[in-house]
């Protein structure tokens, strides 16, 4: 079968369109014929070697949409079932294996393209908004990287919940209209957001801030986080650690919470099924959607990575298998 593999860390040129063996499935696993996979910033970090050591050859990719090709004995799935999943060993491939706990059936009226856009970013966004951030309708919230996949989802979910004030941040104001069309009330750049947030909240600050960037953005976020507010840290796309002092939180009664979907997939996968079901229903109803920035063929994975790294896109980037 065809797949995209790499034999060392490096720039997008290390991604090689190759023939590899079809994966074998074990107990409580399924084999999925892939239709689409999404490209996430985590793929870039893993390709570069920024997410720990890897064993080569390595196939990237966090999630997939497709149909069940093969099951193990006594499976709750059948051949032909339409599903989304988090595969075991990457998803840039024609066939992928996945543990049944990380496979979810999708409604018949949901296209594979839209289904492929959602697994990582929608499940993550639901958990961030409802469980980690515990956002209330009366809150003012800040969503960093609001034009990206998770940001696009968080803005829409917050709008759907009737959150009082939704503030998005972007690298360039060229993306302002896109983010406002999703439901944001205000959009600012990373350079000015802390001052703007204070001005738009009468100097009270934001109740919840969602930060996937870290670095200097984390420091600026603390400058505009309200008393009793929560900073939700779930990534570091800047490649730099965010920092804070204990004095930043204890006297102001503020919280800093962290969350990783990767850790949860590995250590607490049963937590994801009810979230996936809820997200799939919303997507199938048309109440939320994820704009698709561009779709690449599997052989064009390197081009997809270059677009992600340029940050010159809005929504999700997909690979058609």
Automatic annotation (TrEMBL):
<protein>
    <submittedName>
        <fullName>Quinone oxidoreductase</fullName>
    </submittedName>
</protein>
<dbReference type="GO" id="GO:0005829">
    <property type="term" value="C:cytosol"/>
</dbReference>
<dbReference type="InterPro" id="IPR020843">
    <property type="entry name" value="ER"/>
</dbReference>
<dbReference type="GO" id="GO:0035925">
    <property type="term" value="F:mRNA 3'-UTR AU-rich region binding"/>
</dbReference>
<keyword id="KW-0521">NADP</keyword>
<dbReference type="InterPro" id="IPR013154">
    <property type="entry name" value="ADH-like_N"/>
</dbReference>
<dbReference type="InterPro" id="IPR013149">
    <property type="entry name" value="ADH-like_C"/>
</dbReference>
<feature type="domain" description="Enoyl reductase (ER)">
    <location>
        <begin position="10"/>
        <end position="319"/>
    </location>
</feature>
<dbReference type="GO" id="GO:0070402">
    <property type="term" value="F:NADPH binding"/>
</dbReference>
<dbReference type="InterPro" id="IPR036291">
    <property type="entry name" value="NAD(P)-bd_dom_sf"/>
</dbReference>
<dbReference type="Pfam" id="PF08240">
    <property type="entry name" value="ADH_N"/>
</dbReference>
<dbReference type="InterPro" id="IPR011032">
    <property type="entry name" value="GroES-like_sf"/>
</dbReference>
<keyword id="KW-0560">Oxidoreductase</keyword>
<dbReference type="GO" id="GO:0003960">
    <property type="term" value="F:quinone reductase (NADPH) activity"/>
</dbReference>
<dbReference type="Pfam" id="PF00107">
    <property type="entry name" value="ADH_zinc_N"/>
</dbReference>
């Amino acid at each position: 079968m065809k797949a995209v593999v790499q034999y060392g860390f490096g720039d997008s040129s290390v991604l090689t369109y190759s023939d590899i063996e079809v994966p074998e499935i074990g107990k409580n696993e399924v084999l999925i014929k892939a239709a689409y996979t999404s490209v996430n910033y985590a793929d870039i970090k893993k390709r570069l070697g920024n997410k720990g050591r890897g064993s080569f050859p390595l196939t990237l990719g966090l999630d997939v949409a497709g149909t069940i090709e093969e099951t193990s004995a006594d499976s709750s799935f059948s051949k032909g079932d339409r599903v989304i999943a988090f595969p075991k060993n990457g998803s840039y491939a024609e066939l992928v294996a996945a543990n049944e706990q990380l496979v979810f059936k999708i409604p018949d009226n949901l296209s594979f393209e839209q289904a492929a856009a959602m697994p990582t970013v929608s499940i993550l966004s639901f958990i961030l908004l409802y469980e980690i951030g515990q956002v209330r309708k009366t809150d003012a919230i800040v969503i960093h990287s609001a034009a990206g996949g998770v940001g696009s989802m968080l803005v829409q979910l917050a709008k759907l919940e009737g959150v009082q004030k939704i503030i998005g941040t972007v690298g360039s104001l060229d993306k302002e209209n896109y983010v406002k069309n999703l439901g944001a009330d205000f959009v600012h750049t990373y350079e000015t957001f802390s001052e703007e947030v204070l001005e738009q909240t009468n100097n009270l600050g934001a109740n919840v801030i969602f930060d996937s960037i870290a670095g200097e953005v984390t420091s600026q976020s603390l400058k505009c986080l309200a008393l009793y507010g929560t900073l939700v840290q779930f990534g570091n796309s800047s490649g730099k650690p965010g920092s804070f002092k204990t004095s930043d939180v204890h006297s102001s009664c503020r919280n800093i919470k962290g969350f990783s979907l990767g850790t949860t997939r590995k250590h607490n996968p049963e937590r994801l099924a009810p979230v996936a079901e809820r997200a799939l229903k919303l997507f199938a109803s048309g109440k939320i959607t994820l704009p698709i920035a561009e779709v690449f063929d599997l052989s064009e994975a390197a081009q997809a990575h270059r677009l992600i790294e340029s940050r010159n896109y809005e929504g999700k980037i997909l690979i058609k298998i």
